Amino acid sequence: MADHVTVEGEATTAAEQGIARGTVWFLALSVGVIIVNLTAPQTLVGPIAADLGMLPAQAGLVGTASLLGYAAGLFFFVPLSDLVENRRLTIVMLGAAVLTALAAAATRAAVPFLAMLFVLGAACSAIQVLVPIAAAMARASERGRVVGDVMSGLMVGILLSRPLASLITDLLGWRAFYLLSGASMAALIPLMRLRLPMRRPEAHTRYPALIASLATLLRREPVLRRRALTAAFGMAAFSVFWTAVALRLAAAPFGFDQRHVALFALAGASGAVVAPFAGRAGDRGWSRPLLVAAHLMTILAFGLAWLADRASGGLAPALALLVLAAVVVDIGVIGDQTLGRRAVNLLAPEARGRVNALFVGIFFLGGAAGSGVAGYAWAQGGWPLVCAAGASFGALSLLSDLLGGSSQT
Prior knowledge:
By secondary structure, the protein is mainly α. 78% of the residues lie in helices and 2% in strands. It is built from 16 helices and 3 strands. The protein has helices spanning 14-17, 21-39, 45-52, 56-76, 86-106, 110-123, 127-137, 143-172, 174-195, 207-220, 222-250, 258-268, 274-283, 287-308, 315-344, 352-404, and strands at 4-7, 10-13, 198-199. Strands 2-1-3 form a 3-stranded antiparallel sheet. Helix 3 (45-52) crosses helix 4, helix 5 (86-106) runs antiparallel to helix 7 and helix 8 packs antiparallel against helix 9 (174-195). The protein is globular, with a radius of gyration of 21 Å. The model is unreliable at 1-15 (pLDDT under 50).
């Protein structure tokens, strides 16, 4: 079965139609706006917990509730993109995200607020419906470039979400963040009606069978397993760094407050520029050496971060090394994810939504594991153990890739 893109009632294959550059950048903007809701709450735990009178155990859920919802959406909503018309599905999910963000801003009690965050995260899995739309609209020869360009929007959104949320909360309060986020997503809906074509997948099955097929796809597609595994280790390394670096920057000799940490995070966002270049390189057949290079860069980043603790000459050299480490770890992880997305989007066109759900869901689990390891490593051994943990995840990513053999895309 082949995916078809239907535009104004006329079905054409993606290979014949291609995708306009304006549509690519609109999709990049869209995923960047939506993804902010998932990672920004991690920086808002303090003000939200204080305002809602949360217990310590509840406060810890502020940073994870939307992520847990996103995971649920990946496995139970995103597969619908192989069953129902994609533009309509995206708009319905985005509408639910808008309403939930506004409800979160108005909520006055802890438990309802956490429930809203969970639903918001699930609705934001619409991101992973947009990525297959972009891949389906692209010609096979340009698919890596298109996926890379859309990924650049995703990663910029992730990297900017924390400083953006911190600055908005500092100026207007945490409720203003959710109001502005809801308004931003609402503005995307009419634009999606205008910019996106209809995409009607040809799958003819029932929803329970669709969900059950996830296990079959994972077993059937070795490239999916390999790319999801290396991406999971890479995302774990990414989470180790960005979870612990705020703690390191708050300690001596830096003594950074929330605004300074926000500015540091902006420096790391520059690593997102690698996504479109990685996608283009994949289209030219360079995936294999670039994947190895991406894993090596991830390991190198933690070596630089470790050296920052031992830099002589005052604060400036240590901070410069940390900024460089942030950029390098982002380049390594984003490069790996972009090339992985390109590879999995070349698999099973009739199941592109489910393939993306599996890929993202698995590397998302790696990110969650990395966050947990970062907290434990910081408590047990401080920054040196954090760096060792992050480098270990990078090494596991490299090892799993090398053991996969050159036949793996």
